[in-house]
Amino acid sequence: MTADTERRLHPHLAERREAGVAVLRVDREDALGALSRGILERLHDYLIALRDDREVRALVLTGTGRGFIAGADITEYHGADQAAFDDYQRLGRATYDALAALPQPTIAAVNGYALGGGFEVVLCCDLVVASERAKFGLPEIKLGLLPGGGGTQRLARAAGAGFAKELVLTGRIVPAAELHRRGLLTAICEPGRLLPEAMELAATIAGNAPLAVREGKRLIADGGHLPLEQALTLEQQVLSRLFGGADGKEGVAAFVEKRPPVFHGR
Ligand code: COA
Predict the structure, then answer these.
(1) Fewer CB within 10 Å, N side or C side of the chain?
(2) What is the mean pLDDT of the segment spanning 101-127?
(3) Whether residue 192 is found in the same domain as residue 237
């Protein structure tokens, strides 16, 4: 498996591809990965384009050095007028929504500070692998502000209102181990193992039947908004379609014939 070299999407964003997995890296170590408007715009456009990219079967999002993403670029807030601030928040909303709605599974590989918008990015990802050094939080309250990219809502849904209130109202920064104990991380590892662990997860997913992977992600997301009865019916409809499809037939045949399956995404 050979890795393509990184290509620059923006001075502070780099992407490389490896066997159907895209690795997007925020590369702004001197500001701990703070999201300037320019980075956010490029990230937004990248995610919109990725939605229709059939070559990419999973996305790994990571940062550089001590910073994963330390939130919005506070220096750009300073002196910004109301219209510019509101516009940044709208772009943030569109970007987080695009990330959460990507058909491909997404894995946050959290190397360092994931604060504010950085934690909100993590909350939009399907799986989260964190370095033991990673730290998470919603510290906007320290600025007299609040999260605006889903922090109050997605954290409350993922971890309960009590924990969300504690983080939002105190601004406390939480070490990775605590988040792991609360069941919010898929895995925690030493810093040197972070990308290998994330890539192993991504490769496992990318090697599974593409349609089943996408439908599995969609079912879990959509089902959460439906009454249980409807969600269970939806689950059976999706399974029935997969059974009737080429990959479902191939997977079952390969098991019986004791050979590895060859999936085509149909
Ligand atoms: N926006 C802009 N710059 C940021 C930033 C942000 N969100 N977070 C960190 N930086 C910059 C710092 O200003 C500093 O820049 P400088 O070297 O030019 O002074 C650099 O990144 C390193 O940060 P520093 O504060 O020196 O590191 P630290 O280890 O002492 O503290 C944090 C780390 C993350 C606790 C601290 O930087 C912080 O509180 N950042 C703000 C996080 C935040 O409120 N995010 C939500 C924004 S809405």
Answers:
(1) N
(2) 98
(3) no
